[in-house]
Amino acid sequence: MQVRGLLLLLALILVAAAAEAGKNKKEKAKKDGSKCEDWRWGPCVPNSKDCGLGYREGTCKDESKKLKCKIPCNWKKKFGADCKYKFESWGGCSAQTGLKTRSGILKKALYNAQCEETVYVTKPCSSKIKSKSKGK
User: Which family is this sequence assigned to (predicted)?
Assistant: First the structure.
């Protein structure tokens, strides 16, 4: 009986400690020292090469900040990492150009990025012929 009570007390202490830790994280997020609400953010600049970890600079009136950011290494460089698009399915293969095309409509522009509303991408047609029948 005493062991059960001790375990219950230990569980309550752990729950209280976890709640306090969550509260401290929220307070830290609020205490960035800035009352400015009209931040203008620049693009994410990778630390090396053209993808990976980096930073973006923001300004608001006479304040400036740097935030950590990450550019995925498979991003579409043509569109920018802060422009998110919803793409249609690939179209048919053009016999003249040997390319497939598809379009994407802007879904979200992060950090006030200047994004095109509609973008078009192409890729070479596959030389492989896919077989629809599976071995019986």
Answer: Belongs to the pleiotrophin family.
